Amino acid sequence: MNIARRKPLTARVGIFGVGLDTYWEQFPGLLDDLLAKKEILKRKLSAHSVELFDFGMVDNAERAAAALPQIEAADLDLLFVDMLTYATSATFGMIVRRMQIPVVLVALQPLPAMDYEHASTYMQLCNDDFCSVPEFTGVAVRMGKKAPAVVLGQLEGDAVADAELAEWCRVAHVLHDLRRARLGHMGHVLEAMLDMQTDPAAVTAAFGAHVVQCEADQLLPIYREVDPAGAEVTEMKRRILSFFDTPDPVSDPLTEKLTEADLETAAVVAVTLERYIALKHLDGLAYYYEAEPGSLLRRIVTNFIVGNSLLTAAGFPMCGEFDIKTCIAMLIFDRLEIGGSFAEFHPVDFARDTVLVGHDGPHHLNIANGRPVIRSLKKYHGKPGSGAGVEFNIRTGPITMLSVSLNAEGKFKFVVAEGESMEGPIPPTGNTNTHGKFKPDVRTFLKRWAAAGPTHHFALGIGHHAETVRKVADALGIEIEVIC
To answer: Looking at the Swiss-Prot or TrEMBL record, what is one Pfam family this protein matches (predicted)?
Structure first.
């Protein structure tokens, strides 16, 4: 079972083709053939949940100058340049000089190879997609920009090239939502967690996202309006029980079978959270608040886990312990469609050469290995409160971790690693865990990870995606360290 995405994936993506205007009179029909190639690329891109802006054929410096204000006005997240045939870099230099977004050169030739026995200049020009790529990358560097990325391959039937186009569209999804996101920040950092301190203005400077300062007390009137016997709560209980198992306790005396009281509290708080997210127009939330012992507010803020996990899986990353940096990491992973659970390292399993990776919540339920579990917890270790806890292990197979940290100069840094989620028992403690295996061995890896200066939290996703995360970091101008 999967939680349906409620935050649609989208991005504003531009495309223009390049060629040389001299060719059109020399070779009748060539322009039409090249524009037909561009239509094939447009169809490929449109299949990946992007809003496409076509700026036509740019085949000389005058047309580049005319296209530039249109490109800038489109408020794009990413720009593709379709290298349809040879083109002079005058079609590109003034455009790339002004771009503050990733630019990708796409060189997809129709033929797998020239038909040498029947070759002609016309045929060569139809397949000259790569010819001016070095000219374009070199001119980009002269304009003070990084050399653009290149997608190179065949126009049709090329799985590698198609995967690269899809990857760039996922990067565009990340960039689109990061710079428009409204991320709630509720409560305060745990006093002793110095690595959680984050300047909201620095978040906007680095990512574009706006940090919305939220008051925990704002939840109270919403909570009071929710009828525990009403249709919303009844439906939320049904959703919870249809999605989660509720087994008997095993070995941890802090756990018990989910109680009716904890189910009701989790359901009412989940409804409250969904209403609050809508009211504040939030795309995510990082929170920590303790409230007065025995108060209604404490009951609310200590029972976010189930509702937050449902929201996280629906596309709204919800992050505990006031960790706005990991909320951003979770949003990045969600928009890459690889999950994004809130995680940290737990005990090492030296017998299996693994380390338990998990947290007490919230989690991305769509990457669970099988049916997730809810247990009632008599207390949350290290924090006030009690209630329902979510427990599962991550889908077995490749995994990627992303920690968003800060260096001594206050600049953000990505720390990334790839590993494997392995089969193996997890402690029945009402927390999510998975056995993470990392090369060359768990002892060496954990030392290398710690030496990179991460925060102790990170986002956990499925699949190996370090190079995709590197593309995101490069687009944002953020330092990245991949632990190999």
So the answer is: Arabinose_Iso_C
